[in-house]
Design brief:
Layout (H helix, E strand, L loop, with lengths): L6 E2 L2 E9 L4 E7 L4 E9 L5 H19 L9 E6 L3 E7 L4 E2 H6 L6 H20 L12 E4 L3 E4 L5 H6 L2 E2 L2 E2 L8 H4 L6 H17 L9 H10 L5 H4 L6 H9 L11 H12 L22 H15 L2 H12 L3 H9 L6 H11 L1 H5 L26 H15 L3 H9 L5 H9 L5 H9 L3
Antiparallel strand pairs: 1-2, 2-3, 3-4, 4-6, 5-6, 7-8, 8-9, 10-11
Length: 443
């Protein structure tokens, strides 16, 4: 215990419970109320000095968000504190075991137990979503299971801080097995991203394996974005057939094709348990041909070049741009927007200009050269002073963490004045209350 503090604030430290990504977790004791508590910390040593102030501010806001959630299926948040060296959250102490540890240890549940675990998890999320809080990090490590089974969801409030460290532009740190496609692509995530995480957990409970198991984070990301996992019944033949349909809908790549709320998911689980067939959301049986058609060789070369800048997202961005662009020129313009400005963008433009000559395009296709028409529009970021952008970034970072810098750069290029800038930035904040607070900071 020598390396651990004897107390944090008024709380006596009893023992360490584990080490998190950015700090420690302790069992503590509140001498005033005389109860056990769990204390999670973020330490400055795990962050760059320049980011600590932003991290602490956001940690506080997220702790406040978690503290607003009063539900028997959600671990309660009691208090927040911190200084330049450390921030901490004091939470309800739960006598149970993490679902992750249980699954890793080979624990298998009866079907009725799986139904109970999922019903309680979805009930907690139904409540939180109605309060305007999206967890965004639903995974077995954030579920505490007690005898019964009884389930409590952990890390409401700090989940968004942890998630922001996982995704940077074209980069994933850690194993994003439970992150939805829209989260991996850096898009706005709503409650349906949480339901995706529930789908992954259900798959693991039903089969004992991950639906997107792979050796590297990049390969996991590729599977999440582009492949469908085997049907649960192909792994566990004893399952009622309805669970295949539940999984297919829960893990639909497009959020609009998933369960739209937790109650829908609960109802489908009950149907499957009763032996009824659950069908995925209706989709068109005819796949729309891409508006822009290039030869396989050209597409492969473009993907190789783009992946140097955005990583495994390249294939997804290419497919998306093909479907949305009306012309080849628009297709390339859409791709360029995802490449960082400066030398990287110049190198990409140069490579694209050589695509036609090096691999050829299908008949009738033209690959535009790096002409003025092909280059991105001139940035409007010069409209804003560095001080104004720095102030906006600091304010936004307290809500979205390190991604603030990325969002600022993107919005500055599309905004003509500060009012437009702040309006665009506010779209990245999920909570309506927090959006209003952020916009109120603009004067």
């Amino acid at each position: 215990m020598a390396e651990h503090p004897q107390a944090i604030g008024k709380y006596r430290i009893t023992r360490p419970l584990g080490k998190g990504a950015m700090g420690m977790v302790y069992e503590g004791f509140d001498p005033v109320i005389e109860r056990k508590v769990a204390i999670k910390t973020i330490l400055a040593e795990y962050l760059d000095a320049a980011d600590m102030e932003e991290a602490v501010a956001r940690f506080k806001r997220e702790a406040q968000a978690g503290g607003r959630l009063q539900h028997p299926g959600i671990v309660g948040v009691y208090e927040y504190g911190g200084d330049d060296a450390m921030a901490f959250i004091v939470m309800e102490y739960v006598e149970g075991e993490e679902l992750k540890r249980m699954l890793t240890g080979g624990k298998r549940f009866e079907l009725i137990e799986i139904f109970e675990i999922m019903k309680q998890l979805l009930g907690a999320l139904d409540y939180s979503h109605k309060q305007g809080v999206v967890h965004r990090d639903i995974k077995p490590a954030n579920l505490m299971v007690m005898p019964g089974p009884k389930v409590k969801v952990m890390d409401f409030g700090i989940a968004r801080l942890a998630s922001s460290s996982l995704t940077q532009v074209g980069t994933v740190v850690g194993t994003p097995t439970h992150m939805s496609p829209e989260q991996l692509m850096g898009l706005t995530a709503d409650g349906r991203a949480d339901l995706w995480g529930c789908g992954v957990i259900l798959y693991e409970l039903l089969t004992g394996v991950s639906p997107f198991l792979a050796e590297t984070p990049a390969t996991v990301m590729h599977k999440v974005l582009q492949t469908d996992p085997p049907k649960p019944s192909a792994i566990n033949a004893a399952l009622p057939p309805g669970f295949d349909g539940v999984i297919a809908r829960a893990l639909a790549k497009k959020a609009d094709e998933r369960f739209q709320n937790a109650r829908e998911f609960q109802a489908a689980l009950l149907q499957a348990l009763q032996g009824k067939v659950v069908r995925p959301a209706a989709t068109s049986s005819v796949r729309k041909a891409p508006a822009v058609s290039l030869s396989p060789e050209a597409l492969a070369e473009i993907e190789r070049s783009l992946s140097r800048h955005v990583g495994p997202l390249a294939a997804v961005l290419i497919r998306q741009s093909q479907g949305e662009a009306a012309t080849v020129e628009e297709f390339f313009k859409a791709l360029v927007e995802h490449v960082p400005e400066g030398d990287e963008q110049k190198a990409f433009l140069k490579k694209m200009a050589s695509v036609k000559g090096s691999v050829g395009a299908s008949a009738g296709d033209t690959v535009p050269q790096a002409t003025a028409a092909f280059k991105p529009a001139a940035s409007k970021s010069s409209t804003f002073t560095p001080e104004a952008l720095a102030a906006a970034e600091k304010c936004l970072a307290s809500y979205v963490g390190p991604l603030a810098r990325v969002f600022i750069k993107e919005a500055a290029g599309k905004s003509g004045n500060l009012k437009e800038l702040y309006a665009q930035l506010a779209a990245h904040i999920d909570s309506e209350e927090e959006r209003r607070a952020f916009l109120a900071s603009f004067k």
